[in-house]
Amino acid sequence: MSKKKLLAMLTGMVMAFMGLAGVGAASADTTLTPNTPRASMPDKASLTVHKFMGATTDVKNDGTELNAAEMNKLTTQKELAGIKFNLYKVEGVDINTNAGLKLATKLAKIKLDSTVVTTGIKDGSDTYKLVPAKNASAVTDTGGTAKFENQDRGLYVVVEDVAGSDPDAIKADGKKVEKDQITPIAPFALTLPMTSPDGKTWNDNVHVYPKNQVDELKKEVSDKNVKVGEEFSYTLSATSTPTDSNKDKKLDKDDLGGVYEFYDELPANVSYVGTTATIAGANQTENTDFKVTTDGNKITVSFQDPALNKIAKGVEVKVKITVKLNSVPGSGLTENEGKLYPNKWKKDKGDGIPSNKVITKHGDIVIKKINGSNEVLEGAIFTVHLNTAAKKDCSTYGDVIATSEATNAQGLTKLEHLQLSNWYNGAAVGDDDQQPYCLLETQAPEGYQILPKAIPFKLTKEGSVTDLTQAANEAAAGHFTTVTNYKNPGLPLTGAQGILLVSVLGLILVSIGVTLAVKRRQD
């Protein structure tokens, strides 16, 4: 055998060996085999969008259809008919490759708004354009479902088109629903088909129950340690829901009808001090970005140009209203809630979005003064302070919060308008986080020692106390405490009385001495 033939034979053997081993393994990432899920990825898939009146926040989100039991949990939501949806395919994303799937996953997490149709999905310096899909539009039926069938594999974006829907066809439970009652869902991206929940197969019959955009208003109160005469604040916050309502392919103030407004009717026992506002965390300027109108205790905060253009794009808006606590009502409860008018149409109808209610709680602490024999004592006076000691033992405390009148003939007095120990900033406070009050005696009953140290106590009952005796009989109610005093100890005789007694005793002794001397002389 010649050297050339031997070399050719060896080369062929090496190539064959490589084909059976290393080369085959190296090409596994790019070649689909019949037993891998990617190889069995369907060429076509269908999408069903389910539209409800109300937010579907508690349903599964895995691309599969809800079963009967899961549908029964949607007790307040109603299927909405007549709503138009448009489907767009994202260009430049190939989900047939691992790299393409990774990119699709990344793009699907980007928050989109209704301008995405014209602007595309932006990822850094890259822009991925949208093109209408096959059968690019569908309208929800009486069951609230819009179907897009026979779609090619790819990354898609779903856009709700309320403005383009037939107003006479929009119904829930057979009853007509006005367009301005509907808040469109935000555009969202997904792949067709999707990986099944088990992670092993493909789902080519995808069902989505998107969370509707809901105009919500949250109210918070910052009132820790507030007392009469001091200021505290209410904060109203909302995230605007962007939608191109006038179909001009941009998001601006016109989509809000030029209105985005907060309203707050303050409690009667507080007075207005001032307002600040932020949009997406940035401070806004009063009378430039927003205007405050007051009518007694009715406060309206209206946003102006150019702030409205920012709000129209879907951002968090916060309004902080500072007030002064002038008094405490008999109930001890300072209650407040606000409203949001997210657009002109809601404003014209007077259909404000209500906030949650926040409550500031105050009460009175009743004190009973007794001695060691459980007898009531009259004439004691107290001040109350807030503990500042780490051990919460009132070894140190703050300034005077309130001063009592002297205890009456029944040994009773009270300290008024104290904030509850177990409730502030609009929420219950756990035992470990409660800061006790410190009761300091500034005048003791006559003949009794003044207490040398402050006494810790907690107030857990709201409301004014008008009957001290009744409150004392309800010791477990959370607004009563007992303080015991002890008499001054006896002191040695000094001063005029002591001298008088010594003088009298001296005179007696002198008299006895004189008598004895006289008697001896007579003898």
Number of E-state strands:
35
Strand order of the largest sheet: 16-17-23-19-20
Q: Indicate the low-confidence ranges by residue numbers.
A: 6-36, 498-502, 514-521
Total of DSSP H or I helical runs spanning 4+ residues: 9
What is the rounded distance between the termini?
Answer: 177 Å
Shape label: elongated
Strand content: 25-35%
What is the overall pLDDT average? 85
- Given helix and strand content, the structural type is alpha+beta
Biggest beta-sheet profile: 5 strands, antiparallel
**Overall radius of gyration:** 40 Å
Helix percent band: 10-25%
Give a topology summary.
Elements (H helix, E strand, L loop, with lengths): L2 H18 L1 H5 L17 E7 L1 E2 L14 H4 L6 E4 L2 E7 L7 H11 L7 H4 L1 E3 L2 E3 L1 E10 L5 E8 L1 E8 L9 E2 L2 E2 L11 E5 L1 E2 L6 E2 L1 E4 L9 E5 L8 E9 L21 E5 L4 E10 L2 E2 L6 E6 L2 E6 L3 H5 L4 E10 L7 E4 L1 E4 L2 H6 L3 E2 L3 E14 L9 E6 L15 E2 L8 E8 L3 E2 L2 E2 L8 E7 L11 E3 L10 H6 L6 E6 L9 H28 L1
Parallel strand pairs: 1-15, 27-35
Antiparallel strand pairs: 1-8, 2-3, 3-10, 4-7, 4-9, 5-6, 9-12, 10-11, 13-14, 16-17, 17-23, 18-22, 18-25, 19-20, 19-23, 21-22, 24-27, 25-26, 27-30, 28-29, 28-33, 31-32, 33-34
Give a short synopsis of this structure.
The protein is an alpha+beta fold and 523 residues long.
